[in-house]
Amino acid sequence: MSARGELPTWVDIGLIPLLNLTIAFIVAGLVVVVIGENPFRALVIMLDGALGSLKGWSYMFYYATNFIFTGLCVAIAFHAGLFNIGGEGQAYVAGLGAATPGLVIGGALASVLPGTVSTPITLLICLVCSFLVGGFWGWFPGYLQAKRGSHIVITTIMLNYITSSLMVYMINMVFRPVGKMAVESRGIDDAYIMNFREMARLIGVKIPATPLGPVLFLALFSAWAIWYLLWRTRLGYEIRAVGANMEASLYAGIKPAKIIMITMAISGGLAGLMAFHEILGTQHRLVLEYVQGAGFVGIGVALMGRSHPVGIVLAALLFGLLYQGGTELSFAIPTISRDMVVVIQGLVILFMGALEQTFRPYLSAIFAKMED
Amino acid sequence: MDFSLAPEILSSTIRMSVPLILACMAGLWSERAGIVDIGLEGKMLAAAFLSASVAAFSGSAWIGLLAGVGISVFFALVHGYASINQRGNQVISGLGINFIAAGLAVVIGHSWFKQGGRTPQLEGAARFSPIDFPGRDALFAMDGIGRYARILLDHTILTYVALAVVPLSAWVLARTRFGLRLRAVGENPQAVDTAGISVARLRYEAVVIAGVLCGVAGVYLSTALQTSFVRDMTGGRGYLALTALIFANWRAWPALFACLLFGFLQAIANFMQGAHFFGIDIPVQVFNSLPYVMTIVLLAGFIGKSTPPKASGIPYTKDR
Hints:
heterodimer, A: mainly alpha, 0% strand, B: mainly alpha, two-stranded antiparallel sheet, 69% helix
């Protein structure tokens, strides 16, 4: 009996990720010990900060909304055998798509149509443009890989840096109103997504002030749509075939180059939806650096969620918990900086991604023994 | 554009290039042996942080250097373990290390120094100062020549180390048995294995060399170029070094020139907030993004061809 690859499914998708996750958290706990704090106390504060109040839950879901988009972005590329490190840049540049329609045509629409009609139309255009701009920024490295042979990991890294320079220029020189000190556009009032708190206030209910809003449902819908695409459509089958074995897919009549470009466009588009959420649902203006690493968090989310939409939603919630809990932690224990979250994120990526096979031989041996 | 600033810009070019050169050589060693190293950034950052911290505690830049190189080698070994023993995804491993290092530096720095992740200002022997060559001050004081002499003579020892590493790497990789084997491991590990040489051992050696060089690059940032560690102070230099490596087609001498070119662009960007060429305003962001744009154009095959080592990024498995 060979030792590799013959584990029960629940071990493969349940136990192994859980073990790796546990190791990541143990190492993170050791860091807390090194700082001279009690890791269990830190854990309790984090959990309480995220799960102990309605506000905590609300923030957790708000962060998770972003992470579902970027997690799906990385995951769909994984299915085609592509590693899209460019989610950060794709989400950032898509801010142009999210903001421009609202700033440019939102006012014109509002002047001819009543607000209840013009705002949803403007928002719909912003949504499509966010997806398209992000999608274009994903398609481009896809095109370079498919047609020109440049590796997607490298080109997406390059594009992240180019995007960063581009957006500083665009926000500073193009979108910033004359005479304004802060580097940001004017408010996008004609494409404004109310958050749950503002909605609740309309019907006279008071809930805690958090940025959580209805885009959460768009994120959940996207997760369902990506599941449907990957496992229920021909295109999804072709994406997975290219990812599993490009040579074989070629013989099956699939055009890998085309699939790579389409997959990357969808991938970038999903990252673009994160911009839609953050710009129109939270910031209500185009600001610098609003992605805040969410594109990179998506890598951890996709790895932890095993590239499955259900796993991604759960992993996004866990990262949302970490972000919200981490913020509370840095308030409660000032010696622990909020960057602890970045450390945990790195550990998750390392243990879930690069060291995921560590336990497999041992577990295989154990299960082989049990079967004898 | 003010050409009277030329000596200052050239001197700054060298200062900006040094971390790139060291990190780029680190990448060269690693990738030539078949281990892709996205983690240059993280290792530099870890070294920059720990060397500045240890130098602040001990008052000695040299002890700081040891600590910085030590932590960089530690992360290199983690990367080696993931890529060599566990046959993990090298890109993911490198990326994980980048996050861990970036986060840890701030978390630990914040708890040690209570300055929001910044380390204390280094002074005197705690930082690397330009070497005091005999007669240096007299030379620098001279009209005309003085400013030009500074281009090459107003640097710390680490700068000269970086410049020496390039010919040394080129020579070892091209002319020694160790170098030949190391390159072979990056091109055709099966052949090396068949010859009875350990692929894993060679790859570990390459990864450790990369760790040392990357460490020196990070140490340079916080104890020579600047006087303390600040969060994210590498500012993407690890990725820029990788860019230079691709641009140089994984060769040492061209890598030096690529790094000098990128250092020059950084120096210009620092000197001029928007330069004027022929009456056209050029935003500073153009200089910042130029290396990346050039590399994409290169990778797309429009200005030559890039050929990475064949086995780079592929874990080696002994076939049954």
